[in-house]
């Protein structure tokens, strides 16, 4: 359906960034790195927020560039407000035109609108992406390439064409496993990913998304009906109008037995037809910092005899060489003596080094080609008539990885991107110790006192965790020149991203209480310096400490050991952080207010990691996350406080990423976990006799309910699910009806009705209740109540009471609650609660309470944490920066308290 309006597009063209047209909606977008990229690899997608009621329909949105010209765009709702208006909209741009320095999303009925289902394209109809669904395949045409996706069998991508030429076929997911952890190629069982379901999630006209799901089967049973499999996967193909490149977002769930299933390889392979002579076939492998290995299958440079400068230049550049009759006869007549090379292999076994080898045949030795540091992770195989490049984002960071070119001297070669290199030691996911005799809860709690590890037999199981990789696939009509491939490799390694400006995000009033960076007074500047120091330190620690690797990339460590000058990577619960005390929220909130590219990318990597690796997606603990441990899955505390969508929502809203949406929505029934696994089973006084009842499940009003509330809110705003809406609003109302509100600590939840019993009369407080997203989610929910968008009587008052009394004197607490609760520590972290109450009630006395608690300091960090010092070998293995008293708990909560206190009660910041 096509819509036109009486306002001419010329009026938009005349609108410049300096003089925006009057409009109810005008959201500026900037490139994350503040510079328009050379190209957008497969287009670009971002999310844009709006206030309630501002946008009733995504069809009313248009995108204009820095000169005010309408550009082709696709918009769709990512989330809606309770009144049905658009809360966040996805915005996708194609790749047909060079990127503009900036863009604006406007309400512009002047631009022609073309609707496709619930997705809208604005601007020109030229350069669209089309999707054709057939019984056995889906065909997507971007205008620059045609991709055929199979609905069954092992060929996920059946064909990639440029014009009439097929440049790749038989795109398959490959894997292998063995039954022992020691490398043993002879015992490996080869598997291939088999398609079970294909869904077209978006059908253009600017962006198309095809979701493929399946599992891996042994190669010899790939076509066997009813054959069992493992490693269930989801592979999304994201294609943009005008783009020869499409993105692949590959996620899998590890569902093996850690004692007998050792993954020995995992990769994506394409067959590449080769039609030209061997000397016109080309291999390219990305090295570090834009470097490339550039070689021909049959090289004619460096020979004893010279074929001619024109021939040599053409081969090195990847162009067709002149006809043989134009070569020097001393070479053309002896080509049969020049070896052809059958295979190339790049391996990145660590974050700090790669090697490249090649060979002439499978029964011949590998010859050293090159070595380097950090490969950009792109491989190309093709000839003068077409070729294919495959790249992997986070290639060296996600080691052990690799790239293989094989059969390059035959009619059909292959290009494989290894997500787990077949030369690496098999993946070993067994628990790292034997339990040390911790067979009873008493022993486990006693051991917790020394290693901070919450161990329980059978709970350190990786079955059900996941991992996501992002790849690019690019079709070429001929071998590209080196600069083009270098740009492609750079755009894969660091994906260009559009984002709203911090001012636009702040104006939309989304995602909690925060304000823009303000250094207007010495006191504010000092706190901004603290915030920047913490961010700089953690960004730097990732590389200094090599927090890389297949299962580790994206996480940070929990606590520091100043005696060894290392983070406590080997000490029980002090190692990998696993979202403890909300570093995810710290990083995302910091990005919202600063717009820093390095912070965005650290937060995005953390979202990918914590959402996939630290959460169970299958098995008995599906929907739960694991507390911090030496291994990400090692702790026996499996709780919704780690899996909470509160940590995923910013990434989804800012990027429109469908996989992150999946991670949130798969949790919509996570309340059922309270029936199967009691989070407080080890410390419950009645642990010996307690049995969970469907109508009276013990749910904490802090870490538990905040995660459930975030889950229900994410589901409601994203899908409109009324069940989630009712459970969210119902439990909010029930908390408001409890005599002591949030101070009740724990309420009894009816799984079938989704409501709390409101007759519980007790007072209890946990210092952890508010530090896993409760502050942020309650702020959003109260704002919905205040705006009249949610009717939950008593909820706002209950939250205000909790914020007002948490840091109150024991006498003040006892006067109102009847008892002064114990356990109110983490004062600096909770200073933001007092700040919230001060702002809501207009109480400067409470504001002063907040700042006094804040400046008393964190749990351990002190001022020393804000002044990292260098430590050099031989005291350390490599030069590092050290903040001796710092823990990630303090870094996250101190930073969140700083941000929120400045936003809420910055006017009462005391002079220093």
UniProtKB/TrEMBL annotation:
InterPro entries named in the record: PcRGLX/YetA-like (IPR045793), PcRGLX/YetA_2nd (IPR048330), PcRGLX/YetA_3rd (IPR048331), PcRGLX_1st (IPR048329)
Disordered as annotated region, ranges: 171-191
Source organism per UniProt: Krasilnikoviella flava
Domain PcRGLX/YetA-like C-terminal alpha/alpha toroid: start-end pairs: 496-909
Pfam families in UniProt: PcRGLX_1st, PcRGLX_2nd, PcRGLX_3rd
PcRGLX/YetA-like N-terminal RIFT barrel domain span: 27-106
Protein name (database record): Tat pathway signal sequence domain protein
PcRGLX/YetA-like central beta-sandwich domain residues: 129-489
Domain of life: Bacteria
PANTHER family (UniProt xref): CONCANAVALIN A-LIKE LECTIN/GLUCANASE, TAT PATHWAY SIGNAL SEQUENCE DOMAIN PROTEIN
Biased composition (Basic and acidic residues): 177-191
């Amino acid at each position: 359906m096509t819509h036109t309006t009486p306002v001419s597009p010329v009026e938009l063209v005349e609108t410049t960034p300096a003089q925006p047209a009057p409009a109810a909606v005008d959201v500026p977008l900037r490139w994350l790195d503040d510079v328009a990229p050379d190209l957008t690899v497969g287009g670009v997608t971002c999310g844009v927020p709006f206030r309630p009621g501002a946008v009733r329909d995504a069809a009313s949105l248009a995108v204009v560039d820095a000169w005010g010209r309408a550009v082709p765009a696709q918009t769709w709702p990512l989330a809606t407000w309770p009144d049905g208006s658009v809360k966040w909209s996805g915005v996708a741009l194609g790749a047909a035109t060079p990127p503009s320095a900036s863009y604006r999303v406007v309400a512009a009925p002047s631009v022609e609108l073309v609707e496709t289902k619930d997705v809208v394209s604005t601007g020109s109809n030229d350069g669209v992406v089309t999707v054709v669904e057939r019984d056995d395949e889906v065909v997507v045409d971007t205008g620059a390439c045609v991709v055929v996706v199979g609905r069954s069998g092992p060929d996920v991508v059946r064909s990639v064409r440029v014009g009439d030429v097929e440049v790749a076929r038989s795109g398959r997911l490959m894997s292998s496993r063995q039954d022992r952890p020691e490398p043993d190629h002879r015992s490996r069982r080869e598997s291939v990913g088999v398609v079970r379901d294909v869904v077209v999630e978006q059908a253009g006209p600017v962006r198309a998304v095809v979701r493929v799901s399946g599992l891996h089967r042994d190669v010899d049973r790939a076509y066997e009906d009813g054959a069992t499999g493992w490693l269930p996967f989801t592979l999304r193909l994201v294609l943009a109008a005008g783009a020869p490149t499409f993105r692949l977002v590959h996620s899998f769930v590890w569902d093996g037995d850690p004692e007998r299933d050792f993954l020995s390889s995992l990769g994506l392979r394409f067959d590449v037809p080769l039609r030209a002579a061997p000397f016109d076939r080309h291999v390219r492998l990305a090295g570090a910092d834009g470097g490339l290995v550039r070689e021909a299958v049959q090289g004619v440079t460096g020979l004893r005899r010279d074929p001619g400068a024109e021939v040599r230049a053409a081969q090195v550049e990847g162009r067709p060489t002149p006809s043989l009759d134009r070569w020097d006869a001393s070479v053309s007549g002896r080509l049969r003596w020049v070896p052809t090379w059958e295979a190339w292999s790049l391996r990145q076994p660590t974050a700090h080094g790669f090697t490249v080898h090649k060979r002439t045949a499978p029964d011949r030795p590998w010859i050293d080609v090159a070595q380097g540091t950090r490969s950009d992770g792109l491989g190309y195989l093709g000839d003068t008539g077409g070729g294919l490049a495959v790249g992997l984002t986070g290639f060296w960071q996600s080691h052990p990885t690799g790239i293989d070119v094989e059969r390059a001297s035959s009619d059909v070669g292959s290009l494989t991107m290894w997500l787990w290199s077949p030369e690496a030691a098999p993946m070993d996911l067994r628990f790292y110790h034997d339990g040390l005799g911790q067979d009873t809860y008493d022993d486990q709690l006693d051991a917790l006192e020394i290693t901070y590890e919450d161990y329980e037999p059978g709970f350190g199981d990786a079955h059900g965790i996941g991992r996501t990789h992002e790849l690019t696939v690019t079709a070429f009509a001929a071998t590209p020149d080196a600069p083009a491939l270098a740009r492609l490799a750079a755009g894969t390694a660091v994906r260009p991203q559009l984002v709203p400006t911090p001012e636009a995000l702040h104006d939309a009033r989304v995602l909690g209480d925060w304000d823009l960076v303000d250094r207007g007074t010495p006191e504010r500047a000092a706190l901004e310096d603290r915030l920047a120091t913490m961010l700089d330190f953690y960004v730097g620690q990732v590389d200094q400490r090599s927090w890389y690797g297949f299962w580790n990339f994206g996480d940070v460590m929990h606590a520091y050991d100043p005696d060894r000058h290392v983070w406590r990577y080997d000490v029980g619960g002090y190692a990998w952080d696993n979202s403890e005390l909300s570093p995810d929220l710290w990083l995302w909130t910091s990005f919202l207010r600063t717009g820093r590219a390095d912070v965005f990318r650290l937060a995005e990597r953390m979202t990918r990691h914590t959402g996939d690796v630290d959460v169970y997606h299958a098995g008995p603990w599906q929907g739960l996350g694991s507390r911090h441990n030496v291994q990400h899955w090692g702790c026996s505390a499996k709780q919704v406080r780690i899996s909470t969508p509160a940590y995923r929502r910013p990434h989804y809203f800012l990027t429109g990423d469908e996989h992150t949406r999946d991670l949130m929505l798969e949790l919509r029934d996570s309340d059922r976990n309270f029936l199967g696994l009691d989070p407080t089973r080890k410390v419950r006084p009645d642990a010996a006799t307690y049995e969970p009842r469907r109508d009276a499940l013990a749910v904490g009003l802090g870490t538990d309910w905040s995660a459930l509330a975030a889950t229900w809110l994410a589901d409601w705003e994203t899908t409109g699910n009324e069940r989630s809406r009712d459970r969210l609003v119902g439990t909010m109302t029930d908390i408001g009806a409890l005599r002591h509100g949030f101070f009740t600590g724990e309420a009894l939840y009816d799984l079938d009705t989704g409501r709390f019993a409101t007759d519980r009369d007790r007072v209890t407080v946990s210092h952890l209740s508010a530090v896993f997203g409760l502050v942020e989610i309650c702020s959003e929910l109260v704002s919905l109540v205040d705006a009249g968008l949610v009717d939950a009587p008593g909820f706002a008052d209950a939250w205000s009471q909790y914020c007002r009394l948490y840091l109150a004197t024991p006498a003040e607490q006892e006067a109102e609650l009847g008892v002064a609760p114990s356990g109110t520590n983490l004062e600096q972290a909770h200073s933001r609660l007092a700040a919230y109450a001060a702002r809501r009630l207009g109480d400067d006395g409470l504001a002063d309470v907040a700042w006094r608690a804040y400046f008393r300091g964190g749990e351990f960090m002190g001022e020393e944490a804000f002044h990292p010092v260098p430590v050099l070998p031989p005291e350390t293995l490599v030069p590092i920066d050290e903040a001796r008293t710092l823990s990630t708990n303090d870094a996250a909560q101190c930073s969140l308290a700083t941000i929120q206190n400045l936003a809420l009660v910055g006017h009462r910041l005391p002079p220093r």
